[in-house]
Each structure stands twice: as C-alpha cells, then as structure tokens.
Design brief:
single chain, alpha/beta, TIM Barrel, globular
Length: about 450
C-alpha cells in the first residue's frame, strides 16, 4: 500500500532532523508540507534537493502505479488504466472507463459511424460522447474501407482483425494513430495489444514472459461468456494488482458484450462491469437508453469525492430575460444549479439565476457552514451589477433558508427578498404566488 504523509516525513530531512530540514527549496514551507504534497502526487520526490537515494527509491516504488496506463490516439489522446485504488473514497479513480461501440465491416458501417460521431449528452455541465470505435473484420473485402472511414473520424480505435491480411492492413494504415490491436500477435513492443484469458493463471502465464522482454502496452480481455465469472475475474484482477502489487496483472482490462444481448441486458451488464473495474467496455450497438444511463453512472463514479461538484458563481441568463424578469438566488453546488436551470428552461421562463460562491455546497449545507448568508447574497448581487439589468429590486431565495430574508434585506437596503420553494421541482406550482409578491 502507498505510504502515508507521516511515514514519508520520516525519510525526509525534517523527519531525520538533518541540517537541511525545512529548507523551503522544494517550494513548500516545511518537510511535512512536502510529504503531504507527495501523498497527493502533486510533486515528485526529486523536488527535494537533499533527499537520499534510498528514500527516493523507496518513495518511487511506493508511488509506482500498480496498474499500467496506456494511451490511444494522437490528436485526441485517450488514457486507459493507471488506477491506484480499489474504492474511490480511498482517493479517486483517474481515467474514466472507455465506452466503445463495435462496428463490423459486414454491416452498414457508414450509418453507424455517423451515429457515433454525432452522439453526445450533457449532464451537470459536462458533455459526454462515445470514447472509441471497435472495428471488426467480418467482411475482408470491405475491411480496408472501414479502417479508412473510422480513422477519418479521429476517434481512438480498437481494431479486431480476423485474418493475417486484415492484421497487416490495420497495422499499416493505423501505424501513426496509436490504436489498440485486438490480437495477441504483435511484433512491436510500443504497439498496445490485447491478451485474452478466462482466468488469473491464463493472464499470468502470458504476461510474465512479456514483462521480462520489456513489453507493457497490454490490455487484458476477459474472454468469458459467463457473466458472474467475468465480473468476478475483473474484480480479482484489480484486487491482485492494487493490493498485492502483482505486476503480471497490472494492466487495463476490457470486456466485449455479445450481440445476443438486448438493450436492457446491455444496460444491466455494462453497468455491472463499469462498477466492477472494466477499463474498456465494448457495446455491440448504439442504444441511447443504454449509453445515457451508462455515461451518467460513469460520471457519478469518476468524480473526485473530495472536490465538490460546482459551477462558477455569477449571474446566468435563462430564456432571454428582460428588465422585469424574476431573479432566483442559489448556491454554486452543480446539482442545485442544474436543477434550477432545468426547471426554469422547461417553463421557458425569462429569468436570471444568481449563483453565490458557497464552495460548491448545497443550500442547507452552505447555510449551516455560514457560506450562504445575507452578506454573501448581498455581495453576489452587488458584484453581478444586477441593478443595471433589471427595473425592480426583488430577489427570490430558496425556501430552505427563509431565515435569511430579514438578514439579506438589512444587507441590501431597499431590496425586497421573496422566499421561494424548497425544491426546484415545486417551482411550477408556486410561480404565480412568487410573481404576485414582486414589487
């Protein structure tokens, strides 16, 4: 397991009580502060000019990623793997699971490629799409054209040739694109490629000699049709690589869903494999219901649990507001912001949404932590120059913090503070009442 800040400190000049302790040459005020930055991977051990080679070697080994990271694509690179923990609350997950769509040379691939290119969803201020394309050689005569058309889209490619001729075409045509070769045959150690297996022993037998030859650009493909066994194997591989530091298993993993599953089964299975450590999931087709649920789940899992999901404070315009439009106040917690914004947009209500800086906290949390007060609301109103945009002096605060009405009116002399609803979903019902209270 990785060393703690206190354990690291013992190997630094400060912990060893050396003459150069707390020298500040690493840009940190103390050796303990430097140790804390090391734990968060914000600095390198080499930043300390007085660290011993023994300590440097120990720290480098401790911070070595137990799972290799590979990169696909050149102009729009995609990083896969490189994870350090089993559970995100320990630290955080690093590279989001790659969602790829399988495209066969025997199908109407032009239509499918067009759908891949144009698919995207937006959620909580982030836009997501399909991560990669898995091109499969089912019709050798059309495979070359499929390679060209896929490469032109500039998506990272996972190439699955079925013949030796197809393999040669893929390697030649995609040699400058940094693709993943879905084949165990490779003659270039810099070329990412796939190892297939149905058990831990399968993978270890194949990867051990490769590691001795310095070959590390490997992806482990779970070649197991039994769903429970596949999920169990994914979990075991991650556990052995992270907790037991098994280098022979320290590679990104991939699982490809069969065409036999309908969209409901795809949604369930892909969600299981996403939660159970698959670094790449290949889906057989584009079903918006499957993709939207999977991408939403992925976003929830891969956000940093130590950093609140927040938006930039300020004044946001909804549906082309006018001088007499309503002004709603809330915090910069992303879910709060988007809940309000979505409700206002669904009502097609010309309005202003004033977002206060509450360090990404929700309304009640911000109020209890004194991050949402009459003073902070007044500061947001004044800094946004709201008075120049509207012909009235009315603002609507969340119902949960109705106690801030008088306090805010004291801070904002001459303004009328209206108490709104608790939940954004109730806005439609209370809107007529709010409009009547505007002076």
């Amino acid at each position: 397991m990785a060393l703690t800040a206190l354990q690291i400190f013992k190997y630094l000049p400060g912990g060893l009580k050396q003459e150069n302790a707390n020298c500040k040459k690493c840009s940190c005020p103390t050796c303990m502060a430097f140790a804390m930055k090391l734990v968060k991977n914000q600095v390198s051990p080499d930043t300390c000019p007085y660290i011993s080679e023994e300590a440097k070697s120990l720290l480098s080994e401790s911070f070595k990623k137990p799972q290799k990271e590979i990169q696909l694509g050149v102009s729009n690179p995609l990083k896969i793997g490189g994870e350090n923990v089993l559970f995100r609350h320990e630290k955080k997950f690093i590279n989001q699971t790659t969602i790829a769509i399988r495209v066969s040379s025997s199908e109407n691939y032009m239509e499918k490629l067009c759908k891949i290119k144009n698919y995207s969803i937006e959620r909580v201020g982030e836009t997501f799409g399909i991560s990669a394309i898995n091109i499969v050689e089912d019709d050798p005569q059309k495979f070359e054209n499929l390679i060209d058309e896929s490469a032109a889209l500039d998506f990272p490619i996972i190439a699955t040739p079925r013949t030796e001729e197809g393999r040669k075409k893929v390697i030649e045509k995609l040699k400058f694109t940094k693709f993943l070769l879905d084949s165990e045959e490779q003659n270039n150690k810099d070329q990412p490629f796939v190892i297939n297996g149905k058990s831990i022993s399968d993978f270890e037998e194949k990867t051990e000699p490769l590691l001795k030859d310095g070959i590390e650009n490997i992806v482990l493909n779970i070649d197991e049709s039994n769903i429970l066994k596949a999920a169990s194997l994914l979990t075991e591989i991650r556990y052995e690589s992270i907790n037991n530091k098994k280098e022979t298993l320290g590679f990104p993993t991939m699982i490809k869903l069969s065409d036999e599953f309908d969209k409901f089964e795809q949604s369930i299975l892909s969600s299981v494999f996403l939660c159970k450590y698959a670094n790449i999931i290949v889906l057989p087709d584009i079903h918006q219901e499957v993709l939207s649920s999977l991408l939403t789940l992925r976003q929830s899992i891969f956000i940093d649990p130590q950093v609140p999901l927040q938006v930039k404070p300020g004044l946001y315009e909804i549906a082309d507001p006018k001088e007499d439009s309503l002004v709603f106040v809330t915090t910069n917690f992303a879910l709060t912001y988007f809940a309000m914004r979505n409700e206002l947009e669904s009502l097609n209500l010309p309005s202003y949404l004033l977002i206060t800086d509450a360090d990404g906290m929700s309304v009640l949390t911000a109020w209890s932590a004194s991050k949402l007060t009459g003073e902070t609301i007044a500061k947001a109103v004044n800094s946004s120059e709201l008075e120049k945009k509207i012909n009235h002096k009315n603002i609507i605060i969340p119902g949960f913090v109705d106690v801030l009405k008088e306090e805010t009116e004291e801070e904002l002399q001459g303004w009328n503070v209206i108490v709104g609803c608790n939940e954004a979903s109730d806005l439609r019902k209370v809107l007529p009442s709010l409009q009547k209270q505007v002076k």
